[in-house]
Acyl-coenzyme A thioesterase THEM4
Amino acid sequence: MPPAEHPEFVGLIEALRAAQETITGARPPEDVARKARENLEEITRLLSPFTVGESEQLTGQMRGLPGRAQALAPAFHVDVEGNDRVSGRVVFGRFYLGGNGAAHGGSLPLLFDEVLGRLANTGGRSPSRTAYLHVNYRKITPVGPELRVEAHFDREEGRKRYLVGTIRDPEGEITADAEGLFVALRPGQP
Ligand SMILES: CCCCC/C=C\C/C=C\C/C=C\C/C=C\CCCC(=O)SCCNC(=O)CCNC(=O)[C@H](O)C(C)(C)COP(=O)(O)OP(=O)(O)OC[C@H]1O[C@@H](n2cnc3c(N)ncnc32)[C@H](O)[C@@H]1OP(=O)(O)O
């Protein structure tokens, strides 16, 4: 479903990402922390009557939106997308901080799975699933600045799709690269 059909929900996910960022970086006094918790609990009360099954939920389904409206992975902004390659930008915000200004090591596979997985399933190809993801951490991936992300198909062998990707810092140096194997699902395979 196009994001234009659910503009308020799109705004809600943006607000959720902003809240994740702010909460992660905050050291509030106790009374402010309590008030923030109460507000979050109110949001849960407000939305829980509208819980739906996986096929009806909006998060993860909005392909036209950076991050597909899924607040788990950092939002990937696509600049150029073809059948065999994609490039774009990402910011690892404070929410993804591991330590000493570096993005958490687990957040990089999240981003690579999203970018490579999305590419593996585009261009009229049948759905595929990540079989492995090999991530090389070359330098720290900094929290804060905008980083360039590029990915392309390396090769295909039958049902096996091999894709590679890189993340570059503002100086153009590769902070991490990855190779992923995506296996096309057989008809009817769950
Ligand atoms: C979750 C569904 C994803 C589908 C999405 C589709 C559309 C969605 C729409 C939009 C998408 C937009 C963005 C997508 C963004 C992200 C996508 C993320 C994708 C994921 O995040 S998804 C979750 C994590 N993922 C799993 O939850 C996988 C669990 N797992 C399995 O579901 C099976 O394991 C499977 C299917 C992988 C293979 O099982 P299988 O029975 O179908 O095939 P089989 O085992 O026969 O392997 C066939 C050939 O691949 C070789 N092979 C297999 N595995 C290998 C390995 N690890 N290393 C080296 N070679 C390997 C064999 O050696 C053989 O090679 P050969 O043919 O040469 O002998």
User: Anything to note?
Assistant: The CA atoms of residues 31 and 37 lie 10 Å apart. Strands lie at 76-81, 85-91, 97-99, 102-103, 128-137, 146-157, 160-168, 174-184.
